[in-house]
Amino acid sequence: MVLDLLPFSRPSGRLPGHWGSLCYLHLALSVGLVQLLVFGFREGAAGPTAVAWFIIGNLTCYAVGIALAHALLDNRAFCKYLCPVIVPLKITSRFSLLKIGGEATRGNDCGAWVKMCPMDVRIPEYLPSRQRVLSTECSLCRTCITICAPEALKLTFGFDLGGKDLLRERQGPAATGGRNALSDESCPQKAHL
Known about the structure:
The protein has 193 residues and is mainly alpha-helical. The chain folds into 2 domains: 3-86, no CATH class; 96-192, Alpha-Beta Plaits (2-Layer Sandwich). The chain has 6 helices and 2 strands, in the order H-H-H-H-E-H-H-E.
């Protein structure tokens, strides 16, 4: 919720490369720290000390998330690159029965689906072959459903293995210089965004 209050809700794409794999390192370090606290300091791992560690850890995550959002001009930067919770969620989302689906022909090619997706999923590239959005990065926030062409996208129920991550990456230094405004005049809904 705190990250949603920041002013960078239109991301300009992901950092190129393997920056998203940092969440695996963060998970390993977090589990290692918990192991150290529980097994290394048995007496200090309960009571007020445990509460203090919990509060300090959460405040540190919030501070890093806010700093990343400001540095990368993207509210979801922490979620994309560092959040350890994403690791188990990515595994389970491969088998999710509920995914975004739709018809590419109902869209108007303004690109709003991709520009407004907080996780930078290239949604239209799944649709021509009648695929549902198989990206494990899709958080089912339904932002894509609420913008542009009515009834073009919807939540669908079915079984297919996810994991084909088609993600929008930042292009050149201009992409990081400011907020990613929708500039395509072919999008009739851009005034509402």
